[in-house]
């Protein structure tokens, strides 16, 4: 499987929302919520965007509190932390402000990205600490979760009102599946194959990639490749994935 990043419709919506956030009228509305079910490519997208744009990327822990959050942030920025929370918060603010200033000069967006945000989205203290950091310099802060974060933030109007953009990652469309196959698979398949993969995967990127790996192995063993696309009929009765709900193998029907 090719090691490339495919820009699906979800990625396009995220990029569009980020541009809208950059053009925001109210400077304090600098929070973005990115959510959706597991397996839809959120973390992969955010990892790549963060690496490409040199953003700060953190993965929240289940028992995160304000102090642990600030400690992780300082470690990520390679800042030797001081003892008191007050001093560590000041260190984090100063380090972020320096980075943001450098990006402003270059007319680029600097951001803090926090994955697994569902872990702390019900904690007022953690959310207030994040808001304080974000407010102090109008820092673009992207909270990534699995669906609960959007609802949980309604308990904190002073924070939810600062969410300038919301992006929900949804299952891949058929066009997305065709694009993923074209750009990732080293063994091309016919259009009927793309349709079946879209159906059995439920549009989940994780399952689509699993199927691509299976298709490539079968194709190579049986002489298919760039100049000899693999037809769906060639894999009658073969396992092409796993049903996310039941855990049972999914096979190509014998009647295709």
TrEMBL record:
<dbReference type="Pfam" id="PF13401">
    <property type="entry name" value="AAA_22"/>
</dbReference>
<dbReference type="InterPro" id="IPR049945">
    <property type="entry name" value="AAA_22"/>
</dbReference>
<dbReference type="GO" id="GO:0016887">
    <property type="term" value="F:ATP hydrolysis activity"/>
</dbReference>
<feature type="domain" description="ORC1/DEAH AAA+ ATPase">
    <location>
        <begin position="31"/>
        <end position="152"/>
    </location>
</feature>
<dbReference type="InterPro" id="IPR027417">
    <property type="entry name" value="P-loop_NTPase"/>
</dbReference>
<dbReference type="InterPro" id="IPR052026">
    <property type="entry name" value="ExeA_AAA_ATPase_DNA-bind"/>
</dbReference>
<protein>
    <recommendedName>
        <fullName>ORC1/DEAH AAA+ ATPase domain-containing protein</fullName>
    </recommendedName>
</protein>
């Amino acid at each position: 499987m090719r090691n490339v990043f495919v820009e699906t419709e979800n990625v396009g919506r995220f990029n569009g929302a980020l541009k809208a956030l950059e053009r925001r009228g109210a400077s304090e509305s600098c929070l973005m919520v990115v959510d959706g079910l597991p397996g839809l490519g959120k973390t992969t997208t955010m990892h790549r965007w963060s690496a490409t744009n040199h953003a700060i990327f953190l993965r929240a822990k289940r028992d995160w509190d304000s102090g642990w959050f600030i400690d992780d942030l300082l470690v990520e920025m390679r800042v030797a932390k001081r003892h008191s929370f007050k001093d560590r918060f000041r260190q984090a603010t100063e380090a972020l402000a320096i980075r943001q200033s450098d990006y402003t000069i270059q007319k680029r967006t600097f951001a803090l990205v926090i994955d697994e945000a569902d872990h702390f989205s019900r904690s007022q203290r953690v959310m207030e600490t994040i808001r304080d950091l974000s407010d102090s310099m109008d820092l673009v802060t992207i909270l990534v979760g699995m669906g609960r974060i959007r609802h949980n933030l309604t308990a904190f109007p002073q924070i939810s009102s600062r969410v300038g953009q919301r992006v929900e990652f949804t299952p891949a469309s058929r066009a997305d599946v065709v694009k993923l196959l074209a750009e990732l698979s080293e063994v091309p398949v016919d259009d009927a194959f793309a349709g079946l993969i879209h159906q059995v995967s439920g549009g989940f990127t994780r399952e689509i990639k699993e199927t691509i790996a299976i298709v490539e192995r079968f194709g190579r063993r049986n002489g298919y490749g760039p100049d000899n696309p693999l037809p769906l009929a060639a894999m009658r009765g073969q396992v092409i994935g796993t049903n996310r709900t039941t855990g049972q193998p999914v096979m190509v029907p014998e009647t295709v």
